[in-house]
Amino acid sequence: MKIRLIASFFVLLLYNNTLAEINQRNLRSVRVYSTVLKEYRELQVFVPSEYDSTYYTYPAIYLLDSEKNFSTGVEVLSFMMDNHFIPPHVIIGIPNTDRFRDMTPVDSVMNKNIFPTRGGADNFLKALEMDIFPFVKHHFRLNSQRLLMGHNYSGLFVVYTFITRNDLFDRYLAFSPILWWNNDAIVGDMRKFLRSKSTLRNHFFVSFAKEANNMLEACKELISIMEEDAPDDLHWNYEWMPDEDHYSLYRKSLMKGMDNMFQDYKYPNVQKLVTEGIEGVKSYQRKVLLNYGRNEKLPFSLLESVCLELKNNGSVNDALRFLNYTLLVYPGKAETYFYVGEIYEQENMIQKAFQFYEIAHNKDKGRWDYEQKYISVHKRLNEMNNEQANQTNL
């Protein structure tokens, strides 16, 4: 394989207006020669914000039709990564050189004069496996997890890949796939494929909008087949978007599909942690470490909300346990010490309350309320000590 790495930020020129919120330093442009296709292929690459400051390896998202969908895809996906809806990924956009050649399976019914180069999906899969995967693995820190996403004809390619080369990707997103290709052959192929599998540990998402009649019927038939024949361990879902059309559903489909596929990565909500306590936190962390290889620390704002909920509910012991855990994870946060002080004060344990108020005050001397609480409790403690000393003298 002949390769050439171009160290230029191509998006500065091409996508500056549409990607104003994207950190341009996270964008790369690379070029690979495909020995299968006998041509050079440009790749548009986006690395997550943390990429240069960690030693993690990352799962890859392969975004098809990137000459028109890369800007939208990166905008949505980077937002979801930065806000912890999905794990950080390296996004690899693949622009087309001959879309109908690479994205379509072989057919037997279309006139040969229509899209004469069509039917090269198997060859493109071979190019992915032999040329593109090894290239990006060499130049970027990638693990073995891969996601494939496409729309329209590339959505057809996603469904075709799921059926024919299920080993190449872990997750599949197909938006308005052209299921009518070759007289809906792909729909029948899906039924045969699913019935041949007793287990299928993949993720599959398909969306469709206000489609033409033949397209809509094929989509409904596909969903019916999935409902009847999908193995129990196949994680699959679909979204029908009647308010969108065939071309407008891309952004919404991407958000829905990714949200569906990475439910287990999202932080647990406050009520779940209030109920499960510290074990709920540790269970989440074990799951994320096992599934995504990441040591995740829940944000302080979430832990703080749980602490406050427990404290306000009068669950004193549970609140103290959760606060002590939060102190271990975020020892520099003055708020946690203050909340512990409040609980001890409510329990009339003034000496212990003062100790934590003092720490909170020392950690954040800019907080007027911390200072006032520290002074008032200090005064109260002195009064108690003086009263006790007077009683002793009597």
From TrEMBL:
Domain of life per record: Bacteria
InterPro entries for this protein: AB_hydrolase_fold, Esterase-like, Siderophore_Hydrolase_D, TPR-like_helical_dom_sf
Keyword Hydrolase: yes
Molecular functions (GO terms): hydrolase activity, acting on ester bonds
Gene3D superfamilies: alpha/beta hydrolase
Keyword annotations from UniProtKB, A to Z: Hydrolase
Pfam families reported in the protein's UniProt record: Esterase
UniProt similarity note: Belongs to the esterase D family.
PANTHER family hit by this protein: SIDEROPHORE TRIACETYLFUSARININE C ESTERASE, SIDEROPHORE-DEGRADING ESTERASE (EUROFUNG)
Protein name, as recorded: Alpha/beta hydrolase
Lineage of the organism: Bacteria, Pseudomonadati, Bacteroidota, Bacteroidia, Marinilabiliales
